[in-house]
Amino acid sequence: MLSLGVNIDHIATLRQARYAASPEAYNVEPDLLAAAAASERAGASGITIHLRADRRHIQDRDVFRLRESITTKLNLEMGNTAEILDIALRVRPEEVCLVPENRAEITTEGGLDAAGQMRALAPTVERLHAVGIRVSLFIEPDARQIEAARQLGVAMVELHTGAFANATGAAQTDELRRLHHAAEHAHRFGLQVNAGHGINYTNIRKIRTLPHLAELNIGHSIIARALAVGLESAVAEMLAGMKGDA
Ligand code: PXP
Q1: pLDDT tens digits, residue range 179-190?
Q2: For residue 65, what is the domain's CATH number?
Q3: What pLDDT is stored for residue 55 in this prediction?
């Protein structure tokens, strides 16, 4: 069954908007631990967070506290830097998703160039594997990147659905086809196929038609919907959409 990782970065963004300068910022509203627990109660199979080099939303302490509190699994998205790798090795999330990191972007804009960064990625993947962390690469739905994932020996890829989400009409159909081929390709190599970025309550109807999908990571749309209906209902509605019930 297709499972859902809820990305709660935006909840930290809201907290930081008010409390970034306060040392006690971790205990003030909105509470990330409560958000993670609500997502789990509603049926999420994991909690996803991105610890960025500039710490614009998730803070180091959040990562450690969530590690202690969540009962499903923690998926840590991270850029391939020594500093964040060191934290990941101490936190021991069940999963790490390696993503590109560009300080200027609001959120992750493009996939990781795994094919172009094999030499830098290989030792990181090895160190994460050595402590039992499953590794995913957030990549464009592109044959070269899937081949790189295979060569790096990771368990999973997360196909970047941003271009699909931003396209309309025939261009969107083309992007869906690219995702479809990439999912088939990755599956043939034995890679678990995940997807994320820009998935919402409308485009989920098309996303769910992709073959071999194991997990979606969704943040913005669920957190935005939660403002109207609460987080548990927002997660439950997305899960219904993933199943085809909505
Ligand atoms: N997957 C990855 C790797 C991401 O970096 C993000 C956030 O940009 C998401 C999924 C969730 O994207 P969204 O917030 O658009 O649902």
Answers
A1: 999 999 999 999
A2: 3.20.20.70
A3: 94
CA distance 179 to 107: 21
Ligand 1, atom nearest to 223 Cα: 14
181 a catalytic residue: no
Overall number of domains in the chain: 1
Q: Is residue 158 in contact with ligand 1, taking CB distance under 6 Å?
A: yes
Active site residue 50: yes
The confidence band for 199, taking pLDDT boundaries of 50, 70 and 90, is very high
- SS3 state at 103: coil
For ligand 1, the distance from its centroid to the CA atom of residue 131, given in whole angstroms, is 25
Q: Closest ligand 1 atom to the C-alpha of 107? A: 8
Residue 117, domain extent: 3-243
CA distances from 169 to 12, 24, 101, 221 (A): 34, 48, 30, 21
- The structure's pTM equals 0.96
